[in-house]
Specification:
Length: 184
């Protein structure tokens, strides 16, 4: 008998374009089994201007921008925490209630500025539901916590390790999808 896959897959990245490439690939191939949100980089004239948050298969909202006016900020971006709470949180809740893999693209310091969002994310990460989480390499608090969580698979995403990251991520999702098919 084969052991069940780890309940959580954590993918560390430093290159946002590479993360978006893998995220798009996984969502395209495994969308039926995933529910949650993506964070998309906004670029203009070769410069990053902010980020949007998108519910998988649903709404999209501006989350972080130099153009926003907000009392909450992170580095050079003003944050619309309401956009995160209205878009990503309901998508995660719907995924949790329907038994899908909870897809967090990405968890990081900006998203954690929302107490409501971060509290619910912690609950979901420890709920036993399968979770796939992208997080930025160098965010020490996340790296340390995720590497210590039992029942987790950690993947390093880099240009040199692209094939291995794709293989490991798809193998984890294949095993999860097989388990969900058997439960139908």
């Amino acid at each position: 008998m084969t052991a069940p896959p780890a309940s959580r897959l954590f993918i560390a990245f430093s290159d946002c374009a590479l993360k978006e490439r893998l995220s798009a690939r996984l969502c395209s191939s495994y969308g039926r089994w995933l529910g949650g949100f993506r964070t998309l980089e906004l670029r203009s004239g070769g410069k990053r201007g902010g980020f949007e948050v998108e519910a998988l298969g649903g709404a999209r909202a501006l989350f972080a921008s130099r153009e926003l006016v907000s009392p909450v900020s992170f580095n050079k971006y003003a944050l619309d925490l309401g956009a995160l709470e209205r878009t990503a949180l309901p998508a995660l809740e719907a995924a949790a209630s329907s038994g899908k893999v909870l897809y967090f693209d990405e968890l990081g310091p900006m998203a954690m500025k929302s107490e409501r969002f971060s509290a619910r994310c912690v609950e979901l990460l420890f709920s036993g539901a399968p979770c796939l989480v992208f997080f930025r390499r160098g965010a020490a608090v996340f790296e340390k916590a995720f590497r210590r969580m039992d029942g987790s698979l950690n993947v390093e995403l880099s240009e040199a390790g692209w094939a291995e990251a794709v293989r490991d991520s798809e193998a984890w999702l294949d095993a999860r999808a097989a388990m969900m098919r058997n439960e139908e």
